[in-house]
Amino acid sequence: MDTPPTLSLSRSTFAKLSPHPYLVANLTGQGRSKSNSSPACCRTNGRTPQQARPLQVHPSSLTHAHGSALVRNGDTTVICGVRAEILPVSNIPQYRPRSHGEVDSDSSSSSRELRDYDLLVPNIELATGCATQFLPGVPPTTLAQTLSTRVYSLLHSCHLVDAADLRIWHNPKDSSSSEAANAQDKMDEDEDANSHKEEDAEPQLMAYWVLYIDLLFVSFDGNPFDAAWTAVLAALHDTKLPSARWDPDREMIVCSPPTRSLRLSGLPIACTAAIFVEKEHGDTGGRHWILLDPDRLEETLCREVVTMVVDCSDGETRVRAIEKHGGTVIGRELIRAFAGVAEKRWTEVQKSAFLTDK
Amino acid sequence: MTHLAPEAALSVLPRADGSAKYSYAGYTVTASVNGPIEAQKRDEQAYEAVVDVIVRPAAGVGGTRERHLESILQSSLSQIILITSFPRGLIQIMLQIESTPENDYVNTKLVQASLNLAIIPALLQTAVLALLSAAVPMKATATSSAVAVVLQDDGAKKMVVDPSPRDIESAQSVHALIFTSHDELLLAESEGDFTVQDWDQAYEVAYNVCCQAEAKKAGTDMMIDDDNDASGSDMRHFIRSTMESKVAADLHWKR
User: Fold this and answer.
1) Stretch 197-216 of chain B: residues touching chain A, C-beta under 8 Å
2) Domain at B7-242: CATH code
3) Which residues of chain B does A154 touch, with a Cβ-Cβ cutoff of 8 Å?
4) What region holds the Exoribonuclease phosphorolytic domain (chain B) (predicted)?
5) What is the spatial distance between Cα B194 and Cα A162, in angstroms, rounded to a whole number?
6) I want to staple A80 with a disulfide (CB 3.0 to 4.6 A). Which of A115, A235, A259, B252 is the partner?
């Protein structure tokens, strides 16, 4: 090719000067040399529109958290730590006592407990120097707050965690018998009095575990929600709660080392795509591309975003959330078609290591 | 579930460029619109106007949930406003929630972080009315509806339009959809547990509520008020008739 040297721009200069035409040129395959055997339709990062970045999950990467995971999706890296803290029922305002025999009539009573007592507290920190647009030392940006709300809503609407796992019961019968076994040298009459007193005592709910789910973005290169949600899932899968019991003598809860892992129902996986339209500045018409798992450059150029959370673990595809806003390209047909893309992504993520080792 | 017909008043605030008060399904929202005005140097964009949406809750200060509502409304409204006509400008939309449906069954904490999809229709409808009242140029208007899929005792699924908090509590899934007046899907937010078929049905129901003005106008106009009970209210016709009565009142002196 004999182009005049005054007009030739390097790829990175072109990308910086006019990112939108740069992405259009890449997607339409303009200016690509004939010898290059790459596919005709290719994004600036070398992926095809329907290709996501490889996902890497490293569970248990933090020592002092009850559960943690580092998730890397391309250059987006999130670390999630789950810390369980005890919330005594006496500290809950408007606490409605529950009896031991009471079974959850449906999932709604468990989710109401989680929501009313705030047993799941996700928080997302973006101001870690993970990308140039997030300044450190400022109040949480709109994006961070939006992500927190989305993670919080999804955690509750999926019924991922069962409130039964987070309850700490005190069973007087158990404790009296174990005390008897431990302390053989106790006075006989004393033991008798104890057992008589506690014979008819019902098990009591003393406290709840509150899970503080903290997410830190180590590096940010687009698609924060998918990475954050995968990190939450992986960290919760990794979470082991200490076995806690109420000590009636000291009137406090005592814990022994973590043994019990959290049971999670289902495996909802998020799948995000951005819609890139050929015409800049809101003009309608022209072609559009659905770019799966957008990176930072693509996200700044796309207005319309669609996220679908699906769960295929029961064999049947259940949708857990759809979020689509910012444009009118994605209509009814494309949402239906996107469910198929989300299913494919689900199988990809499901194969990744963090679930198979359990 | 039957609600009273939606009510709206335009230009209720004398100092704002445009304002509207809207109440339906237990939600009352007042919106004020100022614009196009000059954007702050820090925020201005060289090619288009900045749309700034502020949502204020009925009680307390806005939290993360309000930020999320703001961001999705902002992205939806900037699609229908002709933002490219006002480069370096700012269109500010302030939405004050005045009341939300009362409910004795649901524990209503003052600050709630979880998303409430049922409030999206009220917020959007008010914003669109206020934008019309401020005569901000727009590509299209928008209408919105929320649908809850409730599993009945006999196992059948029932679609509840504009669900109450009690309905949402017992619903399998809740969907909020916004359509433009060109019948395009502008926003779709859903949560819960559902299949693509369920979503499709909810879409159908919401579409009928939001986009039926033309079909009904074929009949006599007088009939419309009676038809409303059948399939919830017809939002597009409602916006149109609200504007018509406002224009008629404003031009009363001409007659």
Assistant:
1) 198-200, 203
2) 3.30.230.70
3) 191
4) 9-137
5) 19
6) A235
